[in-house]
Amino acid sequence: MELYYSPGACSIGIHVLLDEIGKPYQLKKLNFANREQYAPEFTRINPKSKVPTLVRDDGSVLTEFPAIAAYLARTNPDKHLLPEDVEHQARALEALDYAVATIHMQGFSRQFRPGNFSPNEAEHEAVRARGREISDRGFAIMDKTLDGKEYVVGPYSIADAALFYVEFWGQDRLKQQLPPHCAAHLARMKARPAVQSTLKAEGF
Ligand SMILES: N[C@@H](CCC(=O)N[C@@H](CS)C(=O)NCC(=O)O)C(=O)O
């Protein structure tokens, strides 16, 4: 398989899952500063111009973080990345979606790309501030979820890879203070060999 990624982008969460699984794969780096996601070489593969993009062994392309994460978990059942237990599975998918669709797409997207939310530059500070409110509220909710647990649902799951990347953005990229259980979760994630090898491969 091939993972199209950009260093430090949300694709880092899928990169972590591939390293947890430990099967061979190839990394394909896109330089966002050079707008390589919009170049025809890439839009031929993923017209959405987004990472993560996974090209599977049969050449078919899978996009969207939750779909890729669930696919990797389901095709590698021995790694137990999506709990079998129905309640744990539902909670893992709930947290995964919250990290991606709310904390990332509504919170951090406003902070990183205010221009996508308002063409008026004078409004960009207000857009960033609203994004910060959304991500902070998201972390506060995840902090309660993590109380008394090492990982989001107890056992390690795909939800942890999603929460990891938004925590990484908050603490490491934007130097924001995470609430205590989220900070401990991020530290726990960084202690995992798979996360260490991902961070190294992406140049962190
Ligand atoms: N809904 C998508 C979001 C993916 C996404 O927003 N990726 C960002 C990087 S974190 C991206 O590729 N941005 C490139 C661009 O919009 O130009 C998913 O779940 O995979």
Describe this structure in words.
There is one protein chain. By secondary structure, this protein is an alpha+beta fold. The protein has helices at residues 11-21, 40-43, 65-75, 86-112, 124-146, 158-173, 180-190, 193-201; strands at 2-5, 26-29, 53-55, 61-63. A 4-stranded mixed sheet has the order 2-1-3-4, with helices on one face. The model has no long low-confidence stretch (mean pLDDT 98). The structure holds glutathione. Glutathione binds at residues 9-10, 37, 49-52, 64-65, 100.
Q: What is the general shape?
A: globular
* Helix content, binned percent: 40-55%
Largest pleated sheet: 4 strands, mixed
Q: Kindly, what is the distance between the CA atoms of the first and last residues, rounded to a whole number of angstroms?
A: 23 Å
| Class by alpha and beta content | alpha+beta
SSE order, one letter for each helix or strand: EHEHEEHHHHHH
- Based on the structure, what is the oligomeric state of the protein chains? single chain
> How is the largest sheet built, in terms of strand order?
2-1-3-4
What's the total number of strands? 4
Mean pLDDT: 98
Task: Provide the low-confidence segments as ranges.
Answer: none
Using only C-alpha atoms, the radius of gyration works out to 17 Å
Strand content: 5-15%
Bound compounds: glutathione
Number of helical stretches of at least 4 residues: 8
Fold blueprint:
Elements: E1 2-5, H1 11-21, E2 26-29, H2 40-43, E3 53-55, E4 61-63, H3 65-75, H4 86-112, H5 124-146, H6 158-173, H7 180-190, H8 193-201
Parallel strand pairs: 1-2
Antiparallel strand pairs: 1-3, 3-4
